[in-house]
Predict the structure.
Amino acid sequence: MPLAKNVMGAHIAAAKARALNGNNVNAAVTAAGTTQSDATAITADVNVITTGTTGQGVLLYSGVPGDDQIVYNGTTADLRVYPPTGENVNQLAANSGFVLASYTGVMVKKVSSTQWLGFLSA
């Protein structure tokens, strides 16, 4: 994606440029729950988890194929990332969350109505 400033160069307002560019950031997410049903729902393009304890988690947005989200675990705890109900990430079973280690991130891309691909950082 181009930088928002470059989109703005085409005389598109800043807010619209950020929306088109996928720059919605939630820099203060609190992980919660220990299952898919009670994890914190995240809806921003970029989500930075700043509070959470081991085993707590977040729930991806139920998007459409082509959507992606970035999740960064900025805590000292290993947290879980869950797909929306009935969906799966990589080879995991439907509804199964995966562990996102402390101080790591993942970009997930929805590739079908039920499948997400996860790309973990080092």
In short: Residues 37 and 59 are 8 Å apart (CA to CA). The chain has a mean pLDDT of 92.
